[in-house]
Amino acid sequence: MVGLVGSSFLPLSLVLFSSCLSSVDGLSKVRGVNLGGWLVVEGWIKPSLFDGIPNGDMLDGTQVQIRSVVLNKYVSAANGGGSNVTVDRDLASTWETFRLWRVSENEFQLRCLGGQFLTSKSEDGLILATAKEPLSTETFYIERNGGRVHIKLLNGGYVQATDDHLLISTHQFQPGWDNNLATFELVIVANNLHGDYQLANSYGYEKAKLVLEEHRRSFITASDFDFLSQHGINTVRIPVGWWITQDPYPPSPFIGGSLAALDLAFSWAQSYGLKCIIDLHAAPGSQNGMEHSASRDGSVDWPSPEYISQTLEVIDFLATRYGGHPSLLGIELLNEPSAATVPLDVLVSYYMRGYQIVRNHSSTAYVILCQRIGNADPIELFQAGIGVSNVVVDLHYYNLFDPYFASMNSTQNVEFIYKIRAPQLQALKGVNGPLIFIGEWVNEWDVQNASQYEYQKFGRAQLDVYADATFGWSYWTLKNDRMHWDFEWNIQNKYLLFSKWFIVTEDAKLPAPASTRMGDSPDHHAKITWIPGRLEHPRGHYRDSSSEFIPSPAGCRLRPSL
Ligand SMILES: *[C@@H]1O[C@H](CO)[C@@H](O)[C@H](O)[C@H]1NC(C)=O
Ligand SMILES: *[C@@H]1O[C@H](CO)[C@@H](O)[C@H](O)[C@H]1NC(C)=O
Ligand SMILES: *[C@@H]1O[C@H](CO)[C@@H](O)[C@H](O)[C@H]1NC(C)=O
Ligand SMILES: *[C@@H]1O[C@H](CO)[C@@H](O)[C@H](O)[C@H]1NC(C)=O
After folding, report:
1. Ligand 3 center to residue 411 CA distance, Å?
2. Chosen CATH of 29-40+220-495 out of 1.10.10.10, 3.65.10.10, 3.20.20.80, 3.50.90.10
3. Which terminus of the chain has a smaller tally of CB atoms within 10 A, N or C?
4. Does ligand 2 have an atom closer than 6 angstroms to the CB of 356?
């Protein structure tokens, strides 16, 4: 399969890519792939990393609710924390939901909505929701028996509900598993954080080191860089975490070794003619509360002055180390800050300082600014006046993660790319500000059971439209347990027909030049046509010797709808 594309495609691609990367403005652009889930762990990309964790459904950040089996009521921290704890709620919501901090496989601290921890430190043995820092009096053994638990203090007392709906810790005897006041039902509401924090803290240092060393050594290798270079990819975007600066002994629980892996990636990139974008995916404190920013429990603590200066030191470290490397294309200052928690002015000020730091070490490295995720218009960064030269704004385009997409069929998804994404790109280009980078996109959607041909059309639409981004794009992600997200799987199985000489036509009526290869797609709806050189396309054509797609007037009728 690969050979079929490669034989006509490879020689041309090498000519193009060798001339392209020095200037993104003119001839060619970034056609990248993200190395997601490698140096920053994401459990959904490789779930097996977490397989060896005992009590693996109780990781840092797991959300639990606790119900008294006698009273039939949930434990509640009034007002989300700060005062007493009662066992009086029929229904569980935010005050009744606690986030775990894992101390060992059986010892946990319980954090309330407002950030306080449940504590046994009180005059009358009451459990309160008042501790700011979790210490031993805030640590509980949790003994499990099916869905039931006993909650025990480190001093041996068991926590129990009282008849007047409070929570106390005077019970000193091992309770049974029958219906009694010291037996609770533990409801795991969400266990959706599987990042570096959870992995390392749950395994403990020695085991986590073994797991991560093996993962970093084997998940991405030189042969992947070989594969990418042979398939028309010219750049890798490499997510890293802030702890990389303190290799080999980063602060607990993080595990060293990611710096050596990044060094290797740069040397492979040099060998295979690829460029690297270093992407600070996880900043200290977490800039979006998600596992991929290494949040411990979903909190977003990044926009504090201490964390911001620490983050600028990370940028300085990366720019110092790689600023002069021939394979460095750019440094992305921060991935996906949350619009809900990171104010624009704070972010812009950070980006301005980060820009200066990168420029201090390289006059040419692109400085990449990621849009805020959530409720924010990307235009905000185009108008912010950040930096002077080689500034790029990174937009992440997914037809996912929003109920809006849930009911769309394949046609509607493709239309969305042309009717919403394309005009937005045009409008942002019109601002004449930073270059535009679609730094993350994927050939996956909410459509169930779509055919290979539908995926091909969706991928084609995205490649067409994102080719218009002035800096280029990069696919999320190279490898993934979920095959439709996996770039290599998409290429090998022809779900993503990636090549600028490669189009899909429904009726196969395009006249085929002599050098064209034809092949039937497996579902026989489409002929797949490889046409080297200039290509007429229903909605435009590619400029010769460049990946720039020139839409025909008919394809441009849609109005920007920003
Ligand atoms: C718990 O706190 C709530 C709200 O502050 C208050 O109304 C209630 O009386 C308190 N209960 C106990 C037992 O202290
Ligand atoms: C840039 O480098 C100069 C000279 O080393 C230094 O004084 C200045 O603080 C640096 N600026 C930044 C933003 O790091
Ligand atoms: C998708 O939905 C639209 C609007 O309901 C409909 O017109 C179209 O036929 C559907 N297409 C497919 C492929 O189901
Ligand atoms: C998709 O396919 C699966 C397995 O064949 C089936 O169970 C499911 O109902 C299908 N979903 C839709 C929306 O067609």
Report:
1. 6
2. 3.20.20.80
3. N
4. yes
Which residue, by CA, sits nearest to atom 6 of ligand 4?
A: 449
Q: Is the CB of 162 under 6 A from ligand 1?
A: no
**DSSP string of 345-377?**
HHHHHHHHHHHHHHHHH-SSSEEEEEPPBSS--
Whether 72 is in the pocket of ligand 3, judged by its Cβ within 6 Å, is no
Q: Let me know if the fold of 29-40+220-495 is the same as that of 63-190.
A: no
Domain 63-190 has CATH 3.20.20.10: no
End-to-end CA distance of the chain: 41
Mean pLDDT, residues 1-20? 33
Domain ranges of the chain: 29-40+220-495, 63-190
Q: pLDDT by residue (tens digit) across 331-373?
A: 999 999 999 999 999 999 999 999 999 999 999 999 999 999 9
Percentage of the residues of the chain whose pLDDT score is greater than 70: 84
Which residue, judged by its Cα, is nearest atom 3 of ligand 4?
Answer: 449
- Other beta carbons within 10 angstroms of residue 459's beta carbon come to 23
278 Cα to the center of ligand 2, angstroms: 21
Residue range 256-296, pLDDT digits in tens = 999 999 999 999 999 999 999 999 999 999 999 999 999 99
Coil/strand/helix, residue 6: helix
